[in-house]
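Here is the promised in-class demo. Please do not try to memorize the tokens; focus on the logic of going from shape to residues.
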């Protein structure tokens, strides 16, 4: 077998399997990439909500990253749920030590059911300790509003927010439009110079659990294989729309998407 590219996820476990580390690893696998992981927290979670959270110590998160990257250097790394500022600091330190490039930050703050996955005090740490070394940040609209400190109501606001976040040193900003109120959704990527926009129709479904995780995991897998940011963005966008369209109809709440989407590798 030809050696596969490696992608690492640093995130929380979703016991229900639709979001978090499980969505990331399934998506990495489906995109032909070998997935490794470091857990920041374990949630007791299903499609109906988060029933409990157990957070790892920053030292143990650092240990996982260190031993994995010493042995299995990642071609791209993504972060999801980071829980608190001490974990963010530990992650930042380890990634700098290992000179991890192609870092994708999905600034997970709240689960779809409303449970908090990041402490408020950690926002500043995310902005100052992870953004300067990141290749791409992928906020949804409520996350972007918190990071920027302004409301975002339309595509013009999304562009302003993207420019603001770019100032922190991240190479590309992807704004996900899943939370827009319109019938028509816009996702966009800002590379510091140009905006790349994708408009698509909202799919009327309850099966949107883990859409953000799945999208950013696909983006990370494409970067790991050597794609540029814009190409990776378009592939991830296609992947998530197909995954929502063909969701397996599981669970009594907001069900997972289809991680078996087949797109050319
Ligand atoms: N109902 C929908 N129809 C079509 N596309 C959608 C829908 N919901 C989300 N998307 C797409 O899914 C991707 C993820 O966006 P979204 O804003 O939902 O992420 P998120 O809120 O971080 O997800 P989560 O918190 O569940 O992981 C984007 O490309 C967005 O356009
Ligand atoms: C562990 C975890 N990470 C991220 C999300 C966001 O979808 C979630 N619901 N659970």
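The designed amino acids, position by position:
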């Amino acid at each position: 077998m030809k050696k596969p590219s490696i992608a690492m996820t640093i995130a929380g476990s979703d016991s229900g399997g639709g979001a978090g580390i499980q969505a990331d690893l399934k998506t990495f696998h489906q995109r032909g990439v070998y997935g490794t992981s470091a857990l920041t927290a374990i949630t007791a979670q299903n499609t109906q909500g988060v029933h409990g959270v157990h957070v790892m110590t920053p030292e143990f998160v650092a240990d996982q990253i260190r031993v994995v990257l010493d042995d299995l250097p990642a071609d791209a790394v993504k972060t999801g749920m980071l829980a608190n500022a001490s974990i963010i600091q530990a992650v930042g330190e380890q990634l700098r030590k290992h000179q991890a490039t192609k870092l994708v930050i999905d600034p997970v703050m709240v689960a779809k059911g409303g449970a908090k996955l990041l402490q408020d005090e950690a926002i500043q740490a995310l902005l100052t300790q992870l953004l300067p070394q990141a290749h791409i940040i992928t906020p949804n609209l409520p996350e972007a509003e918190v990071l920027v400190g302004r409301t975002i109501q339309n595509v013009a606001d999304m562009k302003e927010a993207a420019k603001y976040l770019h100032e922190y040193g991240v190479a590309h900003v992807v704004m996900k439009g899943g939370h827009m109120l319109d019938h028509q959704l816009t996702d966009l990527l800002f590379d510091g110079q140009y905006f790349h926009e994708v408009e698509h129709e909202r799919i009327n479904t309850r099966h949107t659990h883990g859409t953000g995780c799945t999208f950013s995991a696909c983006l990370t897998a494409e970067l790991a294989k050597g794609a540029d940011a814009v190409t990776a963005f378009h592939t991830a966008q296609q992947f998530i729309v197909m995954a929502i369209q063909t969701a397996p109809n599981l669970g009594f709440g907001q069900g997972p998407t289809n991680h078996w989407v087949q797109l050319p590798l």
